[in-house]
Structure formats: C-alpha cells, structure tokens
Specification:
Elements (H helix, E strand, L loop, with lengths): L1 H26 L6 H4 L17 E6 L2 H17 L5 E5 L2 H10 L5 E4 L5 H11 L1 E7 L5 H9 L4 E4 L5 H27 L3 E3 L3
Parallel strand pairs: 1-2, 1-4, 2-3, 4-5, 5-6
C-alpha cells in the first residue's frame, strides 16, 4: 500500500513538475528549499560533544499554525532547555513567521517531502524524541518511518471541516477497497490525537 502511495506521489510530481519549475524560475519560489525538502541539505541542529538528548520537533504547516504554536513552543523550550527545539513548516510564509516569532528555537526547517528516503534523512538529522504536529497534517511515510524509529508523533489542535469530511466520504465510496485499510494503517502509526472533541 505504501509503495502505491509513494508511486502516486512521484507521478503527481512528474505531472506537475513543469508548473512548479516555471513558478520557481518566475517568482523565485519552491526551488530554494528543494534540497532541504529532499533531506539533502539541512540546517545543523546543535550537537554538543556529549550525545545530546532527543529534540522536540514541532510541525506548523503555515502561518496560522505557526502563530498558534508559539506559546506551546516557548513553554516546551523553557521546560526542556537541554533539548533542541526544531520547528518545521510547509510554506515559505510559515517559515518566515516561525523564524520571526520563535527566535528561541534551535532551528527552523522545511518539512520533508513524504518519501521514505527524504523522511529518513531528516529524522536522522533532527533525532527527535517526539514530534508534535499542529493541525491535521497526515503524511503516511513520515508516520511510518517515525514509528519504525520509535519516535512518538502527537497530533494537537487537529480538525476536519465538513467540506473535507464530505470529500473523504466521496473518495471512500469510490476507492474504499484501498483507502480504508491504508488509512487505518497510517493512523495507527500516530501515538495520540489530542483534539477537543
């Protein structure tokens, strides 16, 4: 199932590649963080001579999540100062805001593309003790690789809109034979979902 998912992701990239290339060249977007998102070049996370404790990794997708995560990130850094605090975002605007509002973080990175090789490289570089995901960013390969590395992944502040729920229901009616077991497998890789309702 994961192979099919990864293959579909690769096909989507190939099909939309020309668009992203043009956008990158025209507006100087996307291409600058490509190596980082592939796990090939990451900002260093401080590693003292003695083996450092695992990092606290907070993933804030974009601006809204980064804003909502400031208080949590600050509190975690104050409580566990010996642990590196890593913030990741998906968007460039989220990246800028995270750097501006969370100067106490040890590093701010782009979240890796959801291919096993990219995820493994980033997990090996960050060495997280825990990953905290703000909102409902469910990346199957990331969750699977984190579980394989015994890294707990906790979702906080997640939600699903009525529109998204209806879309899920539609896809499940059509592709349920594949999606139901795949989603069940993916969601079991998360450690906890801490939603209010």
């Amino acid at each position: 199932m994961y192979f099919i998912y990864s293959a579909l992701m690769a096909l989507a990239v190939i099909a939309t590649g020309p668009y992203w290339l043009i956008q990158g060249l025209r507006y100087r977007k996307y291409l600058s963080n490509l190596r980082e998102r592939l796990g090939l070049a990451l900002p260093t996370v401080a590693t003292p001579p003695v083996e450092r404790p695992g990092a606290i990794w907070i993933h804030a997708v974009s601006v809204g999540e980064a804003l909502s995560g400031v208080a949590l990130a600050k509190r975690l850094k104050e409580t566990y100062p010996q642990r590196p605090l890593v913030i990741s975002t998906t968007t460039e605007t989220g990246q800028e805001l995270a750097k501006e509002r969370m100067p106490f973080a040890d590093t701010v990175i782009f979240f890796p593309f959801d291919w096993a090789f990219s995820v493994r490289r980033v997990l090996a570089a960050v060495k997280p003790a825990i990953v905290i995901v703000l909102e409902t960013e469910i990346w199957p390969n990331f969750l699977r690789e984190a579980r394989r590395g015994n890294v707990p992944v906790v979702f906080v502040s997640g939600r699903i809109s009525n529109r998204s729920f209806a879309r899920y229901q539609k896809y499940l009616r059509i592709f349920g034979f594949f999606l139901r077991p795949f989603l069940a497998s993916v969601l079991q890789n998360a450690t906890a979902f801490l939603m209010q309702t």
